[in-house]
Design goal:
Layout: H1 2-26, H2 34-128, E1 130-131, E2 147-148, H3 151-160, H4 169-200, H5 205-216, H6 221-230, H7 240-247, E3 256-258, E4 264-267, E5 272-275, H8 276-280, E6 283-285, E7 291-294, H9 300-308
Antiparallel strand pairs: 1-2, 3-4, 4-5, 6-7
Helix pairs in contact: 1-2, 2-4, 3-4, 3-6, 4-5
Amino acid sequence: MKLVNWIIGSALFFASLVIYIFCDKFGVGYWESIEKWAQTGDFFGGILNPIFAFLSLILIVFTLRQNQKALEQNKYALNISNTELSLSRDEFKNSVTALNSQVEQSSYQRFETTFFNMLSLQVEILNSLSFNSKSLNSRKNFNEENTVGRDVFGSILRWIDDTEDESNSLRHYDDFQSAENQVVGHYFRNLYQILKFVNNSLITIEEKTKYIRILRAQLSSNELGLLLFNCLSSKVDDGQFRDLLIKYSFLEHVVLSTIAYDEGFHVSIIKVFISENDINKYIKRDEHGDIQETAFGKHSVIQNFVSSKNIM
């Protein structure tokens, strides 16, 4: 700003100086001929034009330098702004990540809370079970058993066991489900709901497997044995329950034993018969006959059975 004032002051000074010199030399007045007017114009133009041009050049150079400084300042300010914007993006990203983490943690906590509440309900249902003549609506209590809780599953396995024709076990269980569903029907329905809840949750497959194993660890050998029959029964569903058992190898620890010279197995220490065909319903194979999934996992009895049939 000082340079601009200096240039303006210099222009006025030189213009005044030239006018003063002219008036001092030639006086003040009007010329009588056009030639003298032309000469006067040439005098002022010849002296002032170079001075004004020089001052204009200085002003232009000054303006360019000011513009350059302004551009550098703008560039610096833009860099600072970009840096701040980048920091803001990083902070926003970190905030989003933290928020997502909180949401995931909250969701995971809700899942765990629901899972263990369902598990507690399952235990309550288990403890409320009873098998006796009063609890059976239409079937005879052949062995006159009076059991509660986990012992109920042993009573039902003995109930469906046919000493005369053991191949009738699954048909007997169908009859039991039709007539006496109130004994353990709600137990298996709640068990299915727990499996479905874990399977449909948004946690990883590794975490799903972990919680399914926690659930499986709560079941006794007789519970697993009766579950095997339950998910073969036509009275239960269209195979959805059995599919979940297969997916998570839920029957890996069921008690099974082979029968010499017979195409079947004994389930549980009660030794209730089940056919090879029914066992195969828990094994999924591809079009080439290779095993894809099995409800029995690494169960040694089933692995030996599969090997002996040259399926693997």
